[in-house]
Each structure stands twice: as C-alpha cells, then as structure tokens.
Design goal:
- With 242 residues, the protein is α+β, with helices and mostly antiparallel strands.
- Helices cover 43% and strands 23% of the residues.
- It contains seven helices and six strands, in the order H-H-E-H-E-H-E-E-E-E-H-H-H.
- The chain has a six-stranded mixed sheet.
- It starts with 7 loop residues before the first helix and ends with a helix.
C-alpha cells in the first residue's frame, strides 16, 4: 500500500539527510543516530559525502557504509585501479533487472578489491568496487540509454556480493526519486521550518501522520491501487473527478 512508503525510518533518513546537507557538526549527527539506533544499518552516501569522518562515525555506531566516489585522484582509488588492471570483472551481465526498479534494465561490469588502507583518516581497511554500467529505461515508448562509470567504497565484507553492494548503492536513488521528489513536487513538502534534529524528526512525523491518514482515506474511498509508488498526477486527476 502506498501509505507505507512514508514511515519512521524514512523520516529518520530525511532528518539525517538534512543535517548532512547543512554540514552539521558530527555531534549533531551522532545524537540523531543514537536517538534511533535500530533504524539504520547501512549508510548509502553520494560522492559529496565521501569523507573519512563520516565513515568513522558510522563504524563507531556499529553500522556500515556504501559511498560513491568519483574523485579518481584519491590514493585509494588509484591503488584499486592498479589491482583492477590485472583482473577480469568479478561480475558481468547484460539485461539485469532489479525488483525495486521495474522497467529499468542494466548492463553492468563490476570489479572489486579488499583490504585497502590508503584512505587518509579512515580507521579500518576498505573494499572498493569499480562499476561500469549502461542503464536503459523505456520512456514514451522509446528506450533511453545512459552510461556511467564510478567507484563504490564500502565497509561491507565478503558476505555481501559485489552485485548486492551495487544494488544497495542504487537503492539510495529510489528513496530520492520515489519519495522525496514526489512529496516535494506534488505534496508541498518544500520548506524546512526548523533546523535542529529533534524538531526535524518530530515535524516529519507530523507529515507522516497527515500523509498516511490522507492515503488511507483516499485508497478506502476511491478503491485505487498504485503499482509503482505514489503516482500523484493520476491520483490528483482521479480525486478531482470524484
């Protein structure tokens, strides 16, 4: 049911995300994490947040990190590339689909290296993946194709396959696109009224309650179901007609 998308873990993620974007001190981030220690097990970070202090903070909280890295000049990336040059991909496939992304097809190649210690300031050896992917998605009856090449650095061990680490990194954009973009574009979640972590968390919980109550009423009254998330333009049109 669509109203299950906006839940306390999502609200918690939103407050952490806002603190990161404001370059909040680590003490604020640590307080936020300690307030809800079981809602987050793995951080998925974009290249903007590829910082040693954030990786160390996650480790202190007994959590893992998957971070995208595009800075090829980093020593760790250079070391990993030297190893990758002598390896075949550990995973290579065409036409890969993920359950969370219906309608999207990937051609992907993955390389990986373990026990890398040349990220200055990080307290533990790291694992690095090189990702080469081609993404195809059907839009307006035409296939749109885009190619990308980047690196993932993670604290996750060998129990997590290279394909699974890659899939975990992709899930970050599912949160951005399927929830926050939709809420901002169609549900007026456009203004941050307060910047302290407890206020952020409680404010988004109020949003959560209001959104869930509306969706409960809407689905019960109109009998509509949504197969791919919150498809608000169609829902608004149906609401007006009803």
């Amino acid at each position: 049911m669509p109203f299950l998308l906006l839940t306390p873990p999502t609200v918690f993620y939103t407050s952490i995300r806002t603190l990161l974007r404001r370059a909040a001190p680590l003490s604020s981030l640590k307080a936020a994490l300690c307030s809800q220690p079981t809602l987050c097990g793995c951080w998925t970070l974009d290249a903007l947040y590829a910082r040693a202090e954030l990786i160390n903070l996650a480790l202190e909280q007994h959590q893992d990190v998957v971070v995208k890295v595009r800075q090829k000049e980093r020593h760790l990336i250079r070391d990993a590339e030297g190893l990758f040059a002598k390896q075949a991909p550990v995973y290579s496939a065409r036409g890969v689909t993920l359950a969370e992304r219906p309608g999207v097809v990937y051609d992907v190649e993955l390389w990986e290296a373990y026990e890398l210690t040349t990220w200055d300031g990080v307290k533990t050896p790291l694992r690095c993946l090189r990702v080469k992917q081609v993404r195809r998605e059907k839009q307006d009856k035409k296939w749109k194709e885009s190619a990308d090449h980047y690196h993932l650095v993670t604290t996750l061990g060998g129990a997590y396959t290279a394909k699974l680490v890659w899939a975990i990194a992709l899930r970050r954009w599912d949160m951005e696109n399927c929830i926050f973009h939709d809420l901002k574009t169609h549900w007026h979640l456009t203004h941050c009224y307060h910047h302290e972590q407890p206020a952020l968390y409680n404010l988004y919980l109020l949003y959560c309650l209001a959104f869930n109550l509306f969706m409960l009423f809407f689905t019960a009254s109109c009998g509509l179901r949504n197969e791919s998330g919150i498809s608000t333009p169609r829902w608004h049109a149906s609401w007006v007609k009803s």
